[in-house]
Specification:
mainly alpha, elongated
Length: 102
Amino acid sequence: GNTCGRADGIVGSIEYELSSDQPPVVLVLGNSVNEAVQAAVRVAMLAAGRSDVPPCKLGEAQDLILVQKLLPAARDALRSMPAAPFDQVCDSAGKLNVWSTV
């Protein structure tokens, strides 16, 4: 559920390190089974009119900054598979989030 963007310190630190020492591989890890991704998918599905979503474990999740950062990936996942079950949309949203930050 963690995100990084082009203008934050994490990306800048990685870019700085890679400018002087270029490893053969840079590995970016992500996961799709966490409460932040699930909360973002839940918000996206409810906004799209879906009612087949499990209850949220994070309370008022739509107000959390992390959920807001994950929402674009959740919306993209839902657009690409509008009738998919919740867990499948979560898996896709997690992957899309990783690809959007690479």
